[in-house]
Amino acid sequence: MAKSHGENGPRAPAAGGHLSGTRESLAPGPDAATADELSSLGSDSEANGFAERRIDKFGFIVGSQGAEGALEEVPLEVLRQRESKWLDMLNNWDKWMAKKHKKIRLRCQKGIPPSLRGRAWQYLSGGKVKLQQNPGKFDELDMSPGDPKWLDVIERDLHRQFPFHEMFVSRGGHGQQDLFRVLKAYTLYRPEEGYCQAQAPIAAVLLMHMPAEQAFWCLVQICEKYLPGYYSEKLEAIQLDGEILFSLLQKVSPVAHKHLSQQKIDPLLYMTEWFMCAFSRTLPWSSVLRVWDMFFCEGVKIIFRVGLVLLKHALGSPEKLKACQGQYETIERLRSLSPKIMQEAFLVQEVVELPVTERQIEREHLIQLRRWQDTRGELQCHSPPRLHGAKAILEAEPGPWPTLQPSPSIRLPPDAPLPGSKGKYKPPKQVQKEQRKQVKASGQRDKPPTPSQAKVAAAAGDACPPRDVPPKDLVHQDPQDSAPQDSAYHCSQESLTSQESEDTYL
C-alpha cells in the first residue's frame, strides 16, 4: 500500500451527494438489486431509515462484510456479567493493570462487551491518558487549516472506508466528516509523517466506537506505540515485519513456508494490507472486533499470530497446495481465504493457542534488522521502539492520576470524643509524657516538637504532620478553622473522594 501524496488544494467534504459510482466494495457485496437501492441514499436520515430494516448488529447493511460468517452469540446473562466485571475494571484501572493484568488479558480474549468496547480500547491503548495530557490539543488541530497536499487526497479516500456501514454510507455525512477531521488532525500532529491510505480504515473503525477526539488519540497510540513506522513514507517497518512473519512461519508451518519460498512470493504481496489495516479489511466483522480486543491488550504479537494462523490453514498441508501450483493461484488463495478459517470462534482459539511471544518477535526483529543493514544499509525511518501491549504502554506513560491524600470532611473540637468512642480521646502514654516535657521545658503547649521528639511520636503510631501544620491538600480553610487540630483525629479520618464518572459511549 503506497504512501499517498496530494496534488491539488484543499476541498471541504461535500454536504450531500450520490453514492452511485463512488462506492468500492471491500468484501463481497450485496446483489445488484440491493446496490441499486443503496445508490439512492443521500443523507444520514435516509441511511438510518433504511438501517431499521436492513442493518445488522454491527451497523453494516445486510449482505456486506459485517454480515459474513456465523456469529458467536453470547447469552444475555453472560453479557451482563461481563459488563459488570468490565465496569469494575475500568473504574479501578490502575489497580487492575498493576496487580491483575493477566485477568484483563483473559477477559480481552473472551471479548470486550460491545457497550464498553470503545471505552476499554481507550484505556488499553493509553489514548485516554494521552487525551488528559493534551487538553484542547485536538480542538486546536481541528481548527487549523491543514496542509493542502494532504487534504485533497484524504477527501478522495473518505468514500472508500466501509461504504456499507451506516456511519459512512452517506457521502458527506457525519461519519465521513469526523473521519476527515481525525485524519487531517494527524497530518498536523505528525507533519513529518503525513497521511497514509492505510490509516483511514484504522481511524474509521475507531470512529465506530468513540467520538472524534478519543479516536484521534487512539490513532496516535496505534501509529506511535503499536505499529511505529508502518505509515512512514518508505514503509520500511512493514517490510521488516514481513521478513519477521516469514521467518516465524518456518517454525509454525514448514509446509507453507517451503511453498512460498519455492514460488518466490514476497511477504509484501499478501501481508501488507493485513498488518497495516490490522485485518479490518480482511476478516468478517465479528472476527475483526475480537482481534482488535486482543491487539489493544497484547500488542502486535496478535497481528503476527493472526497472519500465521491464516497462512498455516490456507497453505499448510499438501492437500491444500494441490490447487496452488503457481504464484497466481497461491496469491488468489490468500486473497480469498476460506470463511471457515476466518470464523470468529475458530480463529480466536487458534490465535490464543499459537506459541508466538514478544521475545520471539524481538529476537527475529534484531536478526532481520542486521540483515537489512548488511544488504540495504541503515533504515531511513527512525521510529520509536515498539511497545508490546497495554501494560508496556502504561509503564512507559503512566496516567496523570493525583495521589489521594486523607482529608477530614467534618471538623470537631480537639477535646470532642471520636465517633463510636465512649469518652474523650486520650493519646498514648508515651505521647503524653513527651507533651508534658515540652510544656515543662518551654511553657508553651503548642511549640513544635524537636526531631528526636517527632521520632518518638512516630514510633508511638502518630504518623500525621505536626499539629499546627495544616494538611497540604486543604486549599481553602476558614479562619476559625485555622486553630491547631488534634493530630490523632486527622489520622483517624478517611477521605471522602469521588471517582471520575464517565458516560459509556454506545
UniProtKB/TrEMBL annotation:
The keyword Cell membrane does not apply. Residues 1-45, 397-506 are annotated as: Disordered. It holds the Pfam family RabGAP-TBC. One of its GO terms (biological process) is retrograde transport, endosome to Golgi. Residues 111-299 form the Rab-GAP TBC domain. It comes from the Eukaryota. One of its GO terms (cellular component) is cytosol. Residues 431-448, 469-479 have a biased composition (Basic and acidic residues). Residues 480-499 have a biased composition (Polar residues). This is TBC1 domain family member 10A. PROSITE patterns: TBC_RABGAP. The lineage of its organism: Eukaryota, Metazoa, Chordata, Craniata, Vertebrata. The keyword Transferase does not apply. Keywords: GTPase activation. It comes from Phocoena sinus (Vaquita). GO terms for molecular function: GTPase activator activity; PDZ domain binding; small GTPase binding.
